[in-house]
Amino acid sequence: MDTIVLILLLIYVLIILISILELTSLSVAALIGAVLVAWFGIQYGTFTYQDALSFIDFRLLGLLIGTMIVVEVAKKGGLFNVFALYAIKFSGGNPGRLFVAICVVAALVSMFLSDPTAMLLVAAATVTITKLLHYDPTPYFLSAAIMINLGGTSTLIGSVSNMIIGIDAGLSFTDFLSFLGVCEIILWALTILALYFVFKSRLGEKKVLPEYNPKEGIKDKQIFYRSSFVLVILVILFLTLDQLGVGPEAVALGCGVLALLICKVDPAEIFREIDWETVFFIGGFMFIIAGLGRTAFLSEMSVQLFSFAGGSSLLATQMTLWVSGLASVFISNIAVALTFTPIIGAQAASGLNLSAIWSGLILGTNLGGATTPFSGAVMMMAIGTLKREKISVKFGDFAKIGIITTLIQLGFSSFYLILRFGLMGT
């Protein structure tokens, strides 16, 4: 192995370890890695300074930032709070129905929001209702976190890893829905059923809800209605990208500008609320992977990895699903997506069913992130919220639930991919 390859691999492993051990923030760890890759890569002549300037895909960052702007403006108007409160009202104080409503709302909201934002919104509604009804919040919180991680698997903007894969694979909003929409709905049902049986005895007694109007959650009517309009436009445009002839990043940024213009919010305040941690983490890690890619290591890894499949689309898809899924248990799914996309992209001329393989990567990176309290930001946020409520959850207790749901999800996904893409015998 060449010296530069070894150095860049060590930098990669170092950044992953720093992230796992939380020695510093994800963004700082990724930026440190990017600086080290740039320094050693240029010094060893692996790439030039001008080459390095092209390592970051600004289309992806544009898609991410534009979507965040639209979401933050909608949040200012109380759109997602109202959505959650209607679901709670629908429950009528029945703990089983409330449990299902919170799970479904959590999954639905995460289809259009970043997972941390969805967790914050759902957590606020869950704290309110569980306190009001004197329920144990633990089963509701943990189940909502698991459903947020699952929700949005079949949409381009449902998670950051989906955005990464969608941009690199050239998958449209409709491609995501076509490939994985049915799978996600069934996964919702299976996961909610499993969680219900695990937590059934802890959901509490039926209570009478006090009278309240969910519309009281509207913070500003003008922002509420106008941001709702922009969000609808955003989704419609994503669904019609094939006819527009532009990329998703153009739509997201355009709708972000429109939201700032017509909702008359303070742009500085919106920009402060954007999750810049994620933006810089993606940018930095993207640079690390691109630098490593210049050594041809990833393409060689691709050949070795897919050689095990022996030209079988079935084996290649299953391998991608399970390896990325299990990797996402220990490593940020953003990092897993950024690592795997160039490997799969190198198989363009292999004759393999790339639609199936990309779908396996989408499912794997999404489903592996809810196995332990440290598998993803959403899980850590849920545990942190419970701690503020003076409720502690043991690692083993959470992992038991996470392992059960993750194995169910990955197991069904294996079966679904075979049927959806006709992989048997290929």
Give the structure's gist in a few sentences.
This protein is mostly helical.
Description:
With 426 residues, the chain is mostly helical. The protein has a domain at 1-54 and 287-294. 74% of the residues lie in helices and 0% in strands. The mean pLDDT is 82.
What structural class is derived from the secondary structure elements?
A: mainly alpha
Spatial gap, N to C terminus: 34 Å
- What gross morphology would you assign? globular
Tell how many strands the DSSP assignment holds.
0
Reading the helices and strands in chain order gives: HHHHHHHHHHHHHHHHHHHHH
Helix content: over 70%
Number of helices: 21
C-alpha-based Rg, rounded: 22 Å
Mean pLDDT across all residues, rounded? 82
Which residue ranges are poorly predicted, with pLDDT under 50 across at least 5 consecutive positions? Answer: none
What fraction of the residues are assigned to beta strands by DSSP? Answer: under 5%
Q: What's the main sheet like?
A: none
Blueprint of the fold:
Elements: H1 3-21, H2 26-43, H3 49-52, H4 58-77, H5 79-91, H6 95-109, H7 115-133, H8 137-150, H9 160-169, H10 173-199, H11 221-239, H12 241-244, H13 248-262, H14 267-273, H15 276-293, H16 297-307, H17 313-330, H18 333-345, H19 354-367, H20 377-388, H21 395-420
Helix pairs in contact: 1-2, 1-15, 2-15, 4-9, 4-11, 4-13, 5-6, 5-7, 6-7, 6-8, 7-8, 7-20, 8-10, 8-20, 9-18, 9-19, 10-21, 11-13, 15-18, 17-18, 17-19, 17-21, 18-19, 19-21
What distinguishing features does this structure have?
426 residues, mainly alpha
